[in-house]
Amino acid sequence: MNLAERHYAIVTASYWGFTLTDGALRMLVLLHFYRLGYSPFTLAFLFLLYEAAGVLANLIGGWLATRYGIARMLSVGLVMQIAGFGLLSMLDPNWSATLSVAWVVLSQGVCGVAKDLTKTASKSAIKITQAQAKEQGAGQLFKWVAWFTGSKNAMKGVGFFLGGVMLQSLGFQGALWAMAGLLALVLVGVLSALPPMMGKSRASKSAKELFAKNAGINGLAAARVALFGARDVWFVVGVPVYLYSAGWTFSMVSGFVAAWTIGYGLVQAMAPHIVKRSEDGLTREVPAARWWSAALAVVPLALAAAVAAQVPHLVWVVVGGLSLFGFAFAVNSSVHSYLVLAYAGSEKAAEDVGFYYAANALGRFLGTLLSGLLYQWGGLLYALLGSAAMLVVCWGVTLKLPLKRDDAVAR
What we know:
The protein has one domain (about 5-195, about 210-410): Up-down Bundle (Growth Hormone, Chain: A), CATH 1.20.1250.20. About 85% of the residues lie in helices and about 0% in strands. The chain has helices at about 5-35, 40-70, 70-90, 95-130, 140-170, 170-195, 205-210, 215-235, 240-245, 250-275, 285-310, 315-345, 350-400, 405-410. The protein is globular. The two termini are about 30 Å apart.
């Protein structure tokens, strides 16, 4: 294993540990507060600052990683996540509902910043290490990105299941302490194994320079807003609450979300074998992004029709349909994650990735907000229709993605 591969393995393993606790946190908060009687919109509100913080964290995180080094930002993200867990563990059941919600939103905001600082640093490290590797082709980059995104999402799925199990076995506070301890071990590994100045370069000196990305990254950012909004509009509140209200237990709900996410991650890892490759890394990959976006939009439309018609065994129809959604969504997400690095330059990869994942965070924010609102207004049907509408927008944006990389702009 050469140095670049070693750094790639360390970054991937570190993000696995982070993602495991991040997935568990999602289920802990959602199921704990639903059990306490919070409405769907209030549940969504608990996650809003978490998602909103990610927009700014990605933009600033990419700039900071370019200026101070990727490994340092990865460490900062881990420390902030531990701090967020500590804040959540201080929640007192005797507090009023208003104070409890405010405290959870604040704590979630800290965790949201932590997540996106860590994600930006980790994804940027892939571009840096791939540029240092002996195999520098687009095929190698696609494989590394696909494996990273697929494996970390599979780990998030394990975290979803772990969150439900820990809530039942350790309780809310005990689960948070256990996760903080795990991340402390990961932090020690990062500090001892990665060079602190990895990825350091000349950072942008103005907001105009920071936001002046090439057409490919701009288009992907817009598509990413719609793509992840389309997932979270049913994923964050709608389906977990729907399944729980249909009689499923906490472990069953978290088990489904876990299985869905693990399967989604495995498909992401296989994306290089599903999508036909091209020598320049764009001429086949960009049309694939267009086709898979169009195919994905059909799934929530069909599910919405099934819900409206109240077909027999509706719960299992929803589970099966969302499994199909997960397959197509995974290919979409993997292709998009590859394309942003294909369009990006290596000198300021962290800034390019940060800009792109700021759009990702904005999509999650909109999806989270609409997940609570649409489910409260019209149940699962409205959530699925909202997902379909966003995917039509995503498909329309991908039609304008360039088939060539603008090297002059990408730096």
